[in-house]
């Protein structure tokens, strides 16, 4: 990684000085926060999704996982919830629904990091736990809609509370869209489920519930594609311009658009950070899981090394060794091994009574 003119420009902007930043809030990223917390290192945690859990919550929230030590079976959502509880004593600062857009090494060895929403951090260590890349929602591609994202246009919101007492269009044809429409039907003024055709991919129970709500007049289904948006003089979204299955243009009024067009992983700007890559994965030293740039570590599915196995369990191991290595890197001295069973210092950090 080289210092650039851009890095100098970034450096003059206000940035919060921190010891560690973890990029990626999936299971390995969350466990990285825990291990750093045991070492007394405070963490800022960044993820492109609007909630913690990463791939586990996004791709298989209700599917069983059988290979987590000490837990015979749990779902992806349950694992994320357990890990979120586990990091609670360390109170990481979270920056959700934003992607790291720039990472530059400074002349003093620290790392300047900026996100897509303008968050700026100056950190001594970075831990990339981005899995197969940042999960980015597929966007509706019509002119002017980007200015409404976050207010009247929401991509893959984890819950539908924003629909309360509003005229809502849910856009999508998969399980997430069907479930969102069903959930919104209980609180919204009106719900329209919009898809290019009147066919939906969801489990039988969800489809049955959708059919019941359609029959009751609680959900309308429109088969059409979005071709544009209509806004008021104040810039508020008032309607969608649609092309229906018969080739006719129509206007559909709304207050809120919930978009569920799927999530796609993208390596994104990681590829531009000057780190050594091998087949789109970060090369690490297995003694410390540091990349070829001092202070930058990579754990989980984003890294590669001889014998690598893409398992959550392996990522937990990598995060543990990375935390020990980083603690020594930050302190400039060896770190003594302590056990959570007996260490009064670790008990204090965990907020538990020392027996």
Describe, in short, the structure shown:
This protein is α/β, with parallel strands linked by helices and 355 residues long.
Largest sheet report? 7 strands, mixed
Shape: elongated
* Radius of gyration computed on alpha carbons: 23 Å
CATH fold name of the largest domain, please?
FAD/NAD(P)-binding domain
Structural domain count? 2
In sequence order, what are the helices and strands, one letter per element? HEHEHEEHEEEEEEEHEHEEEEEEEEEHH
Protein name: Ferredoxin--NADP reductase
Organism: Diaphorobacter aerolatus
Family: Belongs to the ferredoxin--NADP reductase type 2 family.
Subunit structure: Homodimer.
SSE diagram, text form:
Elements: H1 5-11, E1 16-23, H2 27-38, E2 43-47, H3 54-59, E3 64-65, E4 74-75, H4 76-86, E5 93-96, E6 100-105, E7 111-115, E8 120-128, E9 134-137, E10 153-155, E11 167-171, H5 175-184, E12 190-195, H6 204-215, E13 219-231, E14 237-244, E15 249-253, E16 256-259, E17 263-266, E18 277-278, E19 281-283, E20 296-298, E21 303-304, H7 312-331, H8 344-350
Parallel strand pairs: 1-2, 1-8, 2-5, 8-20, 10-16, 11-12, 11-16, 12-13, 19-21
Antiparallel strand pairs: 3-4, 6-7, 7-8, 9-17, 13-14, 14-15, 18-19
Structure description:
Helix 2 (27-38) runs parallel beside helix 4 (76-86), helix 2 runs parallel beside helix 7 (312-331) and helix 5 packs across helix 6. Strands 1, 2, 5, 6, 7, 8 and 20 form a seven-stranded mixed sheet that branches. Strands 10-16-11-12-13-14-15 form a seven-stranded mixed sheet. Residues 1-12 have low confidence and may be disordered. The protein has two domains: 5-136 and 264-350, 3-Layer(bba) Sandwich (FAD/NAD(P)-binding domain), CATH 3.50.50.60; 139-261, FAD/NAD(P)-binding domain (3-Layer(bba) Sandwich), CATH 3.50.50.60. It contains eight helices and 21 strands. The protein starts with a helix and ends in a 5-residue tail after the last helix. The chain has 355 residues and is of the alpha/beta class. The protein has helices at 5-11, 27-38, 54-59, 76-86, 175-184, 204-215, 312-331, 344-350; strands at 16-23, 43-47, 64-65, 74-75, 93-96, 100-105, 111-115, 120-128, 134-137, 153-155, 167-171, 190-195, 219-231, 237-244, 249-253, 256-259, 263-266, 277-278, 281-283, 296-298, 303-304. Belongs to the ferredoxin--NADP reductase type 2 family. Its cofactor is FAD. This is Ferredoxin--NADP reductase. Keywords: FAD, Flavoprotein, NADP, Oxidoreductase. It is an enzyme of class 1 (oxidoreductase).
